[in-house]
Amino acid sequence: MTRILIVDSNGAGLPALGPGFAAVLQAISRKITCSLCAPYLGQGLPEGPFDGVVFTGSGVGWCVDAPEGRILQDIWRQVVCWKVPIWGSCNGMQLAAFMLGGRCAASPHGDEDGLAKAITLTDIGRSHPMMQGRAIQFHAPAVHRDEVERLPEGAHLLARNDHSSVQAFAYEAEDVSFWGTQYHPEFSLADVETWLADRSKPLPDTEERDGQGDLTLATRTLELQNWLAHVTSRHRTTGAK
């Protein structure tokens, strides 16, 4: 079995995101087990080893570089030492960008809620294993205020759209293997609607539900499927137990 640690990036008083993320990963593959960690609820890292780590999105009101983000920054420093593949969705991707030397801030275009539309693969993205199976342009569930303003040196930009110039990136170095998206491949549109309703924000237009097939489980989770294959490959190569 492949062991995945899911770090729930939501703050106290916000809905837990880890269990839902675990359910999606286990719907993709029955050959993984998931352990959860909620650092903002005072939970430390569980005992490993783990073959991969996920940082979820977050509904907090601060950017990843804020003092309140130090808890997640400390968790990042610890898990990087494990030298296993790391995934980040939304806030998780922003955290990685910041910790690797990039910069994040609130988007000048405001919130991107409902669907991130017309996400377009870059030339690198078209051949990168994270985006295998993706159309050159697609829609994806999204709820975010902040975005990556500047990528860390050495990162590979994989996708962008008119709202955010970084919708997906990968970073590979000797000690770090990170893949992540600004959008939420783990969310269904119903998940997005619940998220927005809890915050009394407008729901996506009904016409967005079609999404040209982008929102089926099999299609919207393509990046996560590819990441799990990456984790499994690394797990076999290293001979981890």
Range of strand content: 25-35%
Number of strands: 11
Could you list the spans in which at least 5 consecutive residues all have pLDDT below 50? none
The helix count comes to 7
The run of helices and strands is EHEEHEHEEHEEEEEHHH
Distance between the termini: 9 Å
At a glance:
The chain has helices at 18-28, 70-80, 91-99, 123-127, 189-198, 217-220, 222-238, and strands spanning 2-7, 32-37, 52-55, 86-89, 103-106, 112-121, 137-144, 146-150, 156-160, 168-172, 177-181. By secondary structure, it is an alpha/beta fold. The radius of gyration is 16 Å and the shape is globular.
Set out the fold topology.
Elements: E1 2-7, H1 18-28, E2 32-37, E3 52-55, H2 70-80, E4 86-89, H3 91-99, E5 103-106, E6 112-121, H4 123-127, E7 137-144, E8 146-150, E9 156-160, E10 168-172, E11 177-181, H5 189-198, H6 217-220, H7 222-238
Parallel strand pairs: 1-2, 1-3, 3-4, 4-11
Antiparallel strand pairs: 5-8, 6-7, 6-9, 9-10, 10-11
